[in-house]
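Section: Multi-chain targets

For targets with more than one molecule, the full set of components is provided together so that the structure can be written out for the assembly as a whole rather than chain by chain. Components appear in the order listed by the source. The example entry contains two components.
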Amino acid sequence: MQDCEREKSVGLVETRFVEFAPPGGIALDGGAVLETVTVAYETYGTLNVSRDNAVLVCHALSGDAHVAGYNSPEDEKPGWWDNMVGPGKGIDTDKYFVVCSNILGGCKGTTGPGSTNPATGEPYGLDFPVVTVSDMVRVQRELVRHLGLESLLAVVGGSLGGMQALTWAAEYPEVCRGAVLIATTHVAGAQQIAFDAVGRTAIQADPDFLGGDYYGTPGPRRGLAIARMMAHITYLSEVSMNQKFGRTFRNAEGPAFSLNNEFNVETYLGHKGKAFVNRFDANTYLYTTRAIDYFDASEGFPSLDASLSRVRGRVLVVSFTSDWLFSPQQSREMVFSLARAGGDVSYCNIRSDYGHDAFLLEVETLSRLISGFLDGVQYPDRDCDTCHRPCSQHRENPVEGTPGVRLFDRQHRVDYDMIVDLVEPGSRVLDIGCESGQLLCQLMRKRQVRAFGIELDEEQSVRCVESGITVIQADVQKDLSGLPDGSFDYVILSMTLQVLEHPEKALKELLRVGRKCIVSFPNFGHWSVRLKTFFRGQAPVTPHLPYQWYDTPNRHVLTIQDFRVFCRDLGIRIEREICLSGDGPVRVWPNVRADEALCLLSQGR
Amino acid sequence: MQDCEREKSVGLVETRFVEFAPPGGIALDGGAVLETVTVAYETYGTLNVSRDNAVLVCHALSGDAHVAGYNSPEDEKPGWWDNMVGPGKGIDTDKYFVVCSNILGGCKGTTGPGSTNPATGEPYGLDFPVVTVSDMVRVQRELVRHLGLESLLAVVGGSLGGMQALTWAAEYPEVCRGAVLIATTHVAGAQQIAFDAVGRTAIQADPDFLGGDYYGTPGPRRGLAIARMMAHITYLSEVSMNQKFGRTFRNAEGPAFSLNNEFNVETYLGHKGKAFVNRFDANTYLYTTRAIDYFDASEGFPSLDASLSRVRGRVLVVSFTSDWLFSPQQSREMVFSLARAGGDVSYCNIRSDYGHDAFLLEVETLSRLISGFLDGVQYPDRDCDTCHRPCSQHRENPVEGTPGVRLFDRQHRVDYDMIVDLVEPGSRVLDIGCESGQLLCQLMRKRQVRAFGIELDEEQSVRCVESGITVIQADVQKDLSGLPDGSFDYVILSMTLQVLEHPEKALKELLRVGRKCIVSFPNFGHWSVRLKTFFRGQAPVTPHLPYQWYDTPNRHVLTIQDFRVFCRDLGIRIEREICLSGDGPVRVWPNVRADEALCLLSQGR
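Its structure, encoded as tokens over all components, is:
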């Protein structure tokens, strides 16, 4: 098993070190200047000739530069993200040149509080200046320059690593062509700061802390272990802890009625604390958690939107449903801010019980997302007919039908062709409920549009990202308010109006964010529907409306005539109305003869 | 302001002490025996002649016997639950005789690790035996006997106090007529145990802990403060912390780029930690959190249901939406287990941002719930026509209408009278979507039924409890699976079938939990509906179905004929079918002429 893992890895790798001593030193956000900074880093894969395939990985609180592979043949374990970085993996070292460095303030080779203070010849200890995430990124910028990289295909990171990636995207937009922000946030909230503060208090209250000058002594082992134990709880979810430990006792005989280590979860936490102490420096813990506390991507700007308007690269945000440290809600705030700022942002919220740790554990879905995203950034204009996976997906694996549309061949939906005809080339198009992006794919190919999708389903959203389509996994009925007025030329709502709880509210929102709106819906005014209702006194079941009254997903029953009155009352102009039956467009008596209607709408007032 | 508070309080009260030394001592769950136990307690109000108005309040981790009023004229603050216990308050000392005692293992007068060990003449320290919640309750049982109380109207508690109340209900069913379980759980989960373990580690890692023998010295002040700081985070919610502190800096000038106390939330937590150390004993913290860890109401029984089948009294469970320490989900598990065990259990989930602390802060709603519940336990057979608030509520304040029913006078709904006629006297009846309990109220008065309600809305559920009606705040589409087969004689679903997402699934569930089911629904086969659809090709708007297609809450459109076919296909027997129009019952051509149908159903197979 382990040999197999070893074979699939990047193999033996070396941590390298580089010292930067720019004229005037490296100025930090807090006002201090570091004359020289040493950076520990590793690289995997090969830089291509055009030097545009570099991916920078940023590590989280307890990580280091050693992402993948083995530093020596004796190593039992590979780097911390070996399941993601390697040949054929999510970040494919056969395609990309991957770089990772230990952060500023770290304890794994980059200058930090345990490094020698040139002014004294002793370790810095608490004389080390407080650093911010921007400071960490500033040092990484030096490394990127040193490696001769003019641009980064993407900066990828989870948790604190995601904060660095977001900082890269905002502060170095000319370098950062893509950013993958996983299980992270744009700002540390009060709860986060509070947990960090308790951890720091535990370290500093330890008598062995010695004011931070504990180098050469055992150091604040108990305090650091307590900090880690507490933090570790925040990395898991309640569900995963109950699954993993429940209330199982350490001794098979059951309770010993003792104050210490009765339950397996206690033993586990104690072990986690001890293991951490053996590999981590307490001062680095203080400085790094403080950097997290200070993190606020809106700082120095009137708003988050204003700050994130600096971003030029494409962004992928990924959260996990059970992550309560950096919650999906925080990710959504960041996503919609990026969208409002005009950015090209995709978002997926992955169902997982693993809590915050999911970013290291949900490898399969994350790999699909990241590899698809990196491809999309590298080949933004790839043609659907020539590219690899995405299009074969759309040709060969048509996805399950939209409710109400069973008449049409899913692979050649008539209404899709009609919609494509309605859209002006080169427009910005938002498709609501875009599924895996079939329609958007056609629009990109035939109309060269800038395509955006909103999709509620996780798997469909992941498929969009895999296909290089920009998608936000969101609920059109709740989240659309996050988008600004008139940000799209067309908003498409295909066969979905009748399943929404509040179609009126939804349509108003669509015509707020889009200049025009293309809506299609099933016509319940069709003669077969009317006849059944009138003569049989039963809710109608027809080939085009195949549902029973009790299993229909259609919350609302409307006719073409209803829709006309509705639009008139709301002051919406119907610019085009195309009525369709199984045989094609219907021009005479559409309200009686059409199965479906497709309307191009604009704000009438 | 403070004088005003003082006037509304129970005034000056005294903590009293009593020593119990039963023959053979008090045996503890862990096997140890305490020869003597001193209990500190307070009482408020007057025991009535029939000695049946006693309410026992159980305190949480950091509480004590001093619930209400002032121990001396100099006291600046009243007891810990003064806003709930007092004249005219939620637990009304004009009506009830209220008792509270400090828990076993405590540090506020009841025997605990700081008490003198009679074997040594020194404080127990860690020689004090580990205690459980059952042990705490066992000692309270001695106090209750000492006070000459043969029964308790109710045992009320939040958090650890709720665990004690549940234990009372299960272990002393002959004494405990009612239990109010607030923000609590039936079992400590792995996350709870983990947080407790970190707190204990912090205390025991403090060099001043001295193996627990720190009495007469400052003691583990730093360790206890760290434990309290961390625990305090779990008492708040992320939202409330952001509202209260956000990222505000302690210094108005902004960041000082320091490791310590930059943010207000840090200062606040530090203050909370210090304040706690001044009033609490670290050993008691160890023992009490361990008692919480051990708490599992199912212990010694094959299942929670089996354990809770011992409960005879009525139970009210209250949770808070933002409480993540003891989540609403944990409360629901307890509620449905009690229901399955045949118990009389009500449940409300109060919308609050305060997190776990809400149990001390959401005074208004809690007061309504607790006072209504206590009244209901004290006067279970009170007649609707003679009792105070509940009926006037139902007579004078008819609640907002059920969707689809606008034709009928809300105060004299024709279908209610019909339903009452269908129900056999003395049955067990479950009303789904019972609103504030109008129909159940009628059924109790006219048919002497045992009434149970399920209601999704918080305010309506609270009103039910205020009216003495047993209600579970739950979603019929998700939570009904928690109820056992055939647990009711009738299940009523009045004008709700058509708004459910899955009527088929719901109806099957109703006929699983009830022997018979009474269902009413609007008839979309009415002639006015058919005519509009057929000739105008528009979704119908009629006096009885006044909604537009886009704003209707009715997800499903069905006719009486549809429903007959539906029941036939599902093997459901329609024992009675009553069709109604605005003028009363319709016997001829009901599918064309009736606005509404009411059916008595039973399982046909």
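The domain at 194-294 of chain B is CATH 1.10.1740.110 (Rna Polymerase Sigma Factor; Chain: A).
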